[in-house]
Each structure stands twice: as C-alpha cells, then as structure tokens.
Amino acid sequence: MATSRAGLVDDEVRRFAWPILLAYDVKSTAATESSQAWQDLPRHKDEDQVELDVNRSFIYYPKNESEEQVDRRKAQLSAVIVQVLRQYPMLSYFQGFHDIVQVFLLVLGVDHAAQAVSHLALLRIRDFMLPSLAPSLAHLHLLPAILYAVDPMLYQHLSQTQPFFALASTLTLYAHDIQEYNDIARVFDFLLAHGAVVSVYFFAIIVLSRRNELFEIPAEEPDMLHSVLSKLPKPLDLEALISRTMTVFTEHPPEKLPFRAWTKVSPFSVLKTTRESVGMQNVQAGLDLFTMQTLQLRRTELREHAFNMLWKYRRPAMSLGLAVVVGGVSIWLRRGGRNEISRLLSRKFFDIFRMIRHD
Question: CB count, 10 Å around CB of 326?
C-alpha cells in the first residue's frame, strides 16, 4: 500500500502504518520508561547546532499558522531531537536531520515522534549519524553504477561529475528539498516501506528523468552539471518516479550492479542491513551495528593514515631498508673472502645504494 499510487493517503493511516514499517511497538513500556527522564541526561555535544537548525524549520509547512503556533512546533521539534541525542549520545547530529524529524513530528505527534526517530536513526539512517562522512558517501558511490546499468550514455556524460550532488537529498530522505507536506509524506511512505538503498535508486531515477536537460550541458562543464543536479526539478511527478524506481530496482538489484559496487559496501551499512526486512531488528541491534561500524571506520582510518605516512616518508624508509640490506651483504662478503668478484659486487651495490639515497 505504501508503494501503490497515493501511498498511505493520510496521516491517520500513517500513524498506524509507520511504526509497523519501522518495526516497533508504539505501546512499548520500555520505550515509555526510558524517555521519562531524558531532560536529566547529560547535554549532547551537538545541541547548539540543533537549536540553530530548528530556528530555520517549518518554513514551507504547515501553512497558515500563527507565529505562536510555529514557535510551539519549534520547541517540540527541538525536544524530540534532543531527547533522541541524549538517549543515544554516540549519534552524531547532521544538518538536515531536523528536516526529517519535522515530518515525523507532524505525522505522529510530539508524544510518539521520539520513539520513531530513535528507530529510524539507529536502523534506517545510521550511516548518516556516524562520526565520519565516509559511510554517507558510500551511498552516493552506488549512483554511477545504477546509471550505467540503465543508461550507459548518460553515465558517460556525467562521468566527470562526482555524485556529491545527491548528498543533500539522500541524507535528508528528500525532506530538505521537497517543499509540499503531502509530497514529502508520500515519499516517506515509499522509503520506509523499502530498504535504505531504494533512496539511492530513487535519486537515480530523478537523474534519468532529466536526461534531455542534462545532455544540453556539455560534459566538460562538471560544475554546471553539479549545480543543476543538486537541485530537484519542480514539480516532481512522484507517482511516475516511484513506479519507475521499483521497475529499475527489480531489473537491476544492488547485488547485480556493475563495477562490483555492492561488494564495496560495508556489511554493517544500512544499505545491507535493511536489504531484507528490519522486523527482526531492534534498537539494541542498531546499537551493536553502530559499534561495529565505528570500529571498522577506525581501522580503515588507521590503515589509510599508516599508508599515507609510509608514502610521505618512502625515501627515508627505502634508505633505511637498503642500509639494513647493505649491512647484511657486507657481512656476507667479508665472510666470503676478498676476491676480485666480491669486491666488484660490493662496489656496485654501494653505488646503487648511494644513487637511491640521494635521488
């Protein structure tokens, strides 16, 4: 129903369906008890940024509300976000998270939004709330593979343009860019009904729908292409885009994308952990996956740092390594006697060593 035309139709249905799609029980006593004293929890490191972003919220919807009503909504939005961050302090807030939470607040109400957002943060958009941007960028690296699978010519045309143009939309589940409440609620219906990777497919279909427009811009102007692609076209034919997304997703599933794109995705990424139903996952599973992803990130960063250091000091390291070898060869030559061949080999080896060291 969430994928069919018009989605879940209205918020009354969504209040029933979204918790099911997020796989949690709205009557959970544990969730109620854990949320009672969040105000007494230590302050989260990102709360100042939260307040700055909340002050810029509720610009496009709801419409025709008084300043007092908008201020009340902003206070509620801030409370929901801060509650989630204080309860799960390992989460890193990102600009645009407030756009997502704003939609949940309007649909579910202040009493139920925090529980839904907690599940969303840990199980559906966890990659975006890690201490590094790298897992978020991994989502974008699937985009060229999808484009190539569907339209190799368009892929080639955009090959000089990095897929970072999709970051704002995919990071915020399109809540940052879609300005009509009914439209963004409809998109959430669709995205929550499927794994996290479908959001990337959805952006790919938006790009494909602009094929003619994009071919009018020379491939040698990646900055211009980036500028155009970073803004969603208006209006969006959501039903047509959703329908085609599911067709392409079925015909070109992640596991069959070219360039071995899917194999490069971390097994702990939400791209893979939501590939099947999240019905068997709970908040604790999300916390465990968060820990594993964080450890993996640290190992990767340490490995890259070590490689960069070796590359930076490659000549001193090479000289040191050769020095050890030279010492060994010298001992061997001394032990082997001082015949003419030994002296010739020794002199030649030291000439090579000096040449490399002073290069």
Answer: 16
CA 33 to chain centre: 31
Token code pair at residue 224: 């211009």
Three-class secondary structure of residue 4 per DSSP = coil
* DSSP assignments along 84-138, one per residue: HHHHSTTPPP-TTHHHHHHHHHHHH-HHHHHHHHHHIIIIISGGGGSSSSHHHHH
Report angle CA 240, 243, 248 to the nearest 5 degrees. 120
Cα(196)–Cα(140) distance, integer angstroms: 12
CA dist 274 and 181 (Å) reads 26
**For residues 299 and 250, what is the distance between their CA atoms, to the nearest angstrom?**
35
Amino acid at 199: S
Question: How many Å apart are CA 259 and CA 281, to the nearest integer?
Answer: 30
How far separated are the first and last CA of the chain, in Å rounded? 69
User: At what angle are helices 181-192 and 97-108 packed, to 10 degrees?
Assistant: 100
Please give the backbone phi and psi of residue 312, each rounded to the nearest 5 degrees, phi first: -65, -40
268 closest CA partner among 285, 284, 290: 290
Q: Do 87 and 118 touch, CB atoms closer than 8 A? A: yes
Residue ranges in the chain assigned as alpha helix (H): 11-21, 29-35, 47-54, 67-87, 97-108, 110-119, 134-140, 143-150, 152-157, 167-171, 181-192, 197-209, 211-215, 222-229, 238-251, 270-273, 283-312, 314-335, 340-357
The phi and psi torsions of 23 (rounded to 5 degrees) equal: 65, 50
Q: Give pLDDT tens digits for 17-63.
A: 999 999 998 865 445 545 558 999 999 999 999 999 999 999 999 99
Cα dihedral 46, 52, 54, 58 sign: negative
pLDDT tens for each residue of 263-280: 999 999 999 999 987 667
CB-side exposure of 204: number of CA atoms within 13 Å?
Answer: 31
Q: Check: pTM over 0.90? Answer yes or no.
A: no
Residue 85 and residue 92: Cα distance in Å, rounded?
8
